[in-house]
Amino acid sequence: MPDLVAPVAPHYVPAPRTQENLDYAELPIIDLAKATTPEERLALSVQVRDAMSNQGFFYVINHGYTPEQTKRVFDIADVPFTQVREAEKRSFVAKMEEEGSFQGYKLRQYWVISFDGGVRDQIEHYNVNKDITKREHPEALRAFFPEISAFARHNHENILHALLRLLALGLELPEDTLVKHHGFDAVGESYVRFMKYYPRSQEDEAKTHRVWLKGHTDFGIMTILYSQPVAALQILTKEGDWKWVKHIENALVINAGDALEFVSGGYYHATIHRVVQPPPDQQGYTRLGVFYFCMADEDMSLAPLLQSPVLQRVGVTKTFESGKIPTMSEWRSARTIAFGRSATKATENGVKEQEIINGVAAKFFD
Ligand SMILES: O=C(O)CCC(=O)C(=O)O
Ligand SMILES: [Fe+2]
């Protein structure tokens, strides 16, 4: 008999929405319910293309999970933090520096937030590869494997693939151009991330100018973030201003990562974003996040898709020297190893750089 009763996860109660009037980013909303026919997809692809080439961020609604299903995922997301003892957590720490992989825990205080002030992060995260069997997990998560696996597949096949079709159309390429490099069953490092931010001391807030996670770009093709009520995420606009990302109930916040910027020759923009202390009415709460970090298959070359008529018209603005183009695997592991661990070099407009591979740098901001 199959087990029809869902295992119990304690209910995670997030902070109430903020009443503060924050300076929010204006981001388009893409309705995935309108991506059924080729005509609808063509129309949506124009919106997605504009969003990815301008803001680098947009919302998605009607992604296929009901508000109840999404709440359940947040309850499961808290399990690796509240139901696993510290000693067991330590035995499941990810091999970030050794293998350039986030699979497992990143415990608090691993990253440096202020090199001068000697302040480290207060963020814990637990990452599960789309293939949950790839490694062992803490005992408390075992009962939730079927739901976590189904969640990974849903993100990959119903959301990532749908958006990759629109992004390929936006480059005037066949719909499957990017999808074929993102197989759910291919060797790849796409993963579900559960992430918990803990309130910090006044001293740490002062020394870091209230920055919880420094401005950065994501490493992969794109990131799917499940909107949650604690305001703290900000994006750096092309004009150089930080704008807050507003919470929309059961929406997704999507952003382009480095790999998408490379394969689109710079046309789709990997926007710098950061996490700061929430507004006063949300201080003192933890902040629980749920993500799906989308990577291309490990062997995909991050060369620009020069066959795109769009790129032929607008030109390539970002790429590696020829002969030195890394694969997804090489870029991802080099960035994972360097992230938050070595100092960055100042360039213009407050943006800092850290050389990653073959002379190409990652962008950062305090
Ligand atoms: O917590 C958030 O809202 C964003 C986190 C983030 O940018 C990341 O984990 O790469
Ligand atoms: Fe990020």
Automatic annotation (TrEMBL):
Boundaries of every Fe2OG dioxygenase domain copy: 188-296
Domain of life: Eukaryota
Any GO molecular function: metal ion binding
PROSITE patterns: FE2OG_OXY
Protein keywords: Iron, Metal-binding, Oxidoreductase
Cited Pfam families: 2OG-FeII_Oxy (PF03171), DIOX_N (PF14226)
PANTHER family listed in its UniProt record: 2-OXOGLUTARATE (2OG) AND FE(II)-DEPENDENT OXYGENASE SUPERFAMILY PROTEIN-RELATED
Family label: Belongs to the iron/ascorbate-dependent oxidoreductase family.
Name recorded for this polypeptide: Fe2OG dioxygenase domain-containing protein
Organism: Cyclocybe aegerita
